[in-house]
Every structure is written in C-alpha cells, then in structure tokens.
Amino acid sequence: MHRLTPLAAVAVLLAACQPKPEQPAYTGLDMQELMVHVVDPAAFAFWRGSGYVLTEEGEQDLSPTTEEGWKAVEDGAATVAEAGNLLMLPGRAREPAAEWNKYAKLLTERALEAKAAAEKKDRKAVFDTGGRLYEVCVACHEKYVIGPMLADEQKPKK
Ligand code: HEC
C-alpha cells in the first residue's frame, strides 16, 4: 500500500484548506439577470406602494393600508439598498468603475431614504424618495446601457 510521509500528508491537508482567492463572493447572475430578478422587482415592490391611480370612482391612493403592505414596501427598499453593494462586486462593476460605483452607492443611499420613509409610513416622503430612486436607475442606464431604457414593445426581439 502506498503511504504518504507525515510531512507530505500535512502538505496535502494544507493545500485542501487554501481559500480560492479568485472568488471573493458569488457573482453568478449576469447583470441582466441581477436587474430583472433582484433590482427591478425590489424597486417595484417599493414603487407599487406610492402615488395615485385614476379609476372610474376617482383618484385611488396606492399607499398600503395594512402593516404587511407597509412592510412589503419597506422590504423592497431594503433589498435595493443591499443590491447597490451587489453591483459593486468585483466582476460586476463596469468601466469606468469609479463612476459605476458612484451610481451604485447613490442607489443604496436613496434606497435607504426610501426605506426610512416607508418605516415612518410617510406617504408623501415615500412618493418623493421613490422618484429620487428612479432618477438613479435612469442615470446609470443612460451612461452604461444604450440611452434611456426602451419601453418593452420597443426592445429588440431576442
Ligand atoms: C450602477 C448602474 C445601474 C443602476 C444603478 C441600475 N441599473 Fe439597471 N441596468 C444596468 C445595466 C448595465 C443594464 C444592462 C444589462 C446588461 O448590460 O446586460 C441594466 C438593465 C436593466 C434592466 C433591463 C434588463 C433587460 O431585460 O434587458 C432593467 C429592468 C433594469 N436595469 C432595472 C433597473 C432599476 C429598476 C433600477 C433602479 C432601481 C436600476 N436598473 C438601476 C445598470 C444599472
């Protein structure tokens, strides 16, 4: 039977314990998927709870009316705030990175303001901070995507 010398055995064990420096964190979702499955639904969970719609009965306030409703709005903002970090992970940040990170940090900053507004159940502040949050999406898209976001029907068919 082949036997390892004690020293070789230690070397094998040490090698097995080495962390993989290439992978500081999971970045398996590409940018498009991160946007579609994380950033976008979280932002909409927030936006859904603000503003008014016109119905046949007149203006209808979209603000939540239950504790769970307010929590869902706040959860959305919290997720967007954390997503700002996900955008800055090595492998995700795009060039020029300094500017990319500036948008990502601004996304977090404004999402935290939005979260605070939802926590206070302040309807006007939820509406206002939601608008300010949207400005960051548009600004980054204008810089890094291709001009302003296209409406669904204008998107090239895949
Ligand atoms: C730091 C930059 C940045 C910020 C901030 C940002 N995005 Fe994006 N977003 C991108 C990039 C880059 C793409 C294009 C994806 C690609 O290149 O594959 C994109 C694409 C998208 C798409 C389209 C995906 C598709 O189907 O093609 C949606 C939807 C989207 N973003 C939503 C949002 C929303 C909502 C916000 C704000 C809450 C936001 N994004 C904030 C960079 C950003």
Short description:
60% of the residues lie in helices and 5% in strands.
Task: Explain what you see.
This protein is mainly α. The protein has one domain (27-146): Up-down Bundle (Four Helix Bundle (Hemerythrin (Met), subunit A)). It is 60% helix and 5% strand. It has five helices and two strands. It has helices at residues 6-17, 31-47, 67-87, 97-119, 123-144; strands at residues 52-55, 58-61. The protein has a two-stranded antiparallel sheet. Helix 4 (97-119) runs antiparallel to helix 5 (123-144). It is elongated, with a radius of gyration of 22 Å. The termini are far apart. The protein binds heme C. Heme C binds at residues 31-32, 35-36, 39-40, 43, 80, 87, 100, 103-104, 107, 133, 136-137, 140-141, 144-145.
Write a concise keyword list for the protein shown above.
158 residues, mainly alpha, Four Helix Bundle (Hemerythrin (Met), subunit A), single chain, elongated, binds heme C, 60% helix, 5 helices, two-stranded antiparallel sheet
Helices and strands in order, then pairings?
Elements: H1 6-17, H2 31-47, E1 52-55, E2 58-61, H3 67-87, H4 97-119, H5 123-144
Antiparallel strand pairs: 1-2
The structure holds heme C.
Helix content: 55-70%
> In sequence order, what are the helices and strands, one letter per element?
HHEEHHH
Q: How far do the termini sit from each other? A: 59 Å
What's the count of strands?
A: 2
Mean pLDDT: 86
Q: Low-confidence segments, ≥5 residues, pLDDT <50?
A: none
* Sheet with the most strands: spatial strand order: 1-2
Q: What general outline do the C-alpha atoms trace?
A: elongated
Task: Please tell me the total number of domains.
Answer: 1
The biggest beta sheet is recorded as: 2 strands, antiparallel
The appropriate CATH architecture is Up-down Bundle
Bound molecules: heme C
Strand content: 5-15%
